[in-house]
Amino acid sequence: FNLLVVMTPQRKTHLTANLLLRNTVLVVTFTYSPQIVFIIQSQNNSFHVRQADKRRADLLKQAQGLTKVRIKSLFAQTNIRTCSFLFKETNVKMNTLIQVLAKFDKNKDWFLGKPLHDEESTIIHHYAFAENPSIFKYPDFAAAWALSIPLVVRLANKVRDEPLKSDFTIDLKHEVALYIWDSGKGPDLTAVPELCTEPENSPQALYCATTLSSEPPLCGEAVTKGDIFVAVKTCRKFHSERVPVIKKTWEKDALFLEYYSDHADPTIPTINLGVPNTERGHCGKTFAILQRFLSSAVPNTKWLLIVDDDTLISIPRLQVLLSCYDPSEPVCLGERYGYGLSQGGYSYITGGGGMVFSREAVVRLLNSGCKCYSNDAPDDMVLGMCLNALGLPVTHSPLFHQARPEDYARDFLAHQVPISFHKHWNIDPIAVFNKWLKDDLRANPSDGLNKSTKTEL
């Protein structure tokens, strides 16, 4: 059927350039030259592998369902050659997609997708285009995105001489677009209206080539509150400023929760772990929390959630998400960042959005002997180095957010049921919690969006 379906781990160690290079090699070394290559971006975790397998099977079934006459007619009219990237959650109407891609000259460089843009310059994009951030468009990966094969080949040649230079990999979709744009020497993202993030059964999805599933993945019952132990990192100077926000918002949803500080305050209460407060990283405190989690001092639970005192989080939504993961596996879940990946670096869970560990992951981490090189080392990055050395995967979820809602594109958040946001800077954190994170699984979302449009939980 002139179709190739490939699954690749969605790890940030596969930088844009490396990912493109790998996929180009796959295309040119096969015994035939497929006209459409689907790259299903997945992760090294049993749940994600199962979901990707289902997506692959669906694509192959659709291809088999198209008659030979129809296939020959479509490709005869178009002679398209593209590489299409999609998430395992992205539904594809293959017939429609082929017709959409037929509109674009196969001999030209095309970068196709559903465009997102920043309303204001943001730290997660390294304050790019600070004077007018809305001028730069980057793709919403959930809608799928596509490159013409000539562009893939050109990028593969480019990466051999010019790898991605950024020390920190934060938002891959933005960095992909920057790399392809190449300071104006490469193509801009071309908007394709048929690449959508509408729910698959909605009226708006009638003419879409891609959609999102209208229901969360069926992973069984949500884990119970008693399955999760919550550790909040704080310090004396924030006891009166940040802790009250937690108590007014999400504390009531946690059954087992402790506040860890440099000062024992019985009115909160906080626990002094004997680690002095530091202005930079909090590695010493975090490793003390990991050790306490495995001790008899706290309830024996399946999951550990570590958050900052300015993290806003929905525990009920986390309970639903964790139903998809096996706590007997070494699961390390959150928003994944990368450091020094083009020089053989590592991925890590950025701490502000919340770090989730299965008990098995904590056991392996501590048994490995990995430890902080100083109390003020960055805890999330040290943990990333430890996991990398152990060969344990960092599992990314786009529902955890290191920054505030305004630091993300509106259309990106529109199809999410977010689990966390971070920072109280220049916002009313209680209002942000009530709008974005207050449990709306039984009620209408407070931001006016219909629940059915929020599909990624």
UniProtKB/TrEMBL annotation:
Subcellular location: Endomembrane system; Membrane
Span of domain Fringe-like glycosyltransferase: 222-427
Pfam family, one: Fringe
Bilayer topology annotation: Single-pass membrane protein; Single-pass type II membrane protein
InterPro entries given in the database record: Fringe-like_glycosylTrfase
Entry superkingdom: Eukaryota
Keyword line: Glycosyltransferase, Membrane, Signal-anchor, Transferase, Transmembrane, Transmembrane helix
Record-level Gene Ontology MF annotations: glycosyltransferase activity
A GO CC annotation given for this chain: endomembrane system
PANTHER family with a match to the protein in the record: FRINGE-RELATED
Annotated family: Belongs to the glycosyltransferase 31 family.
Protein name: Beta 3-glucosyltransferase a
Organism whose genome encodes this protein: Mastacembelus armatus (zig-zag eel)
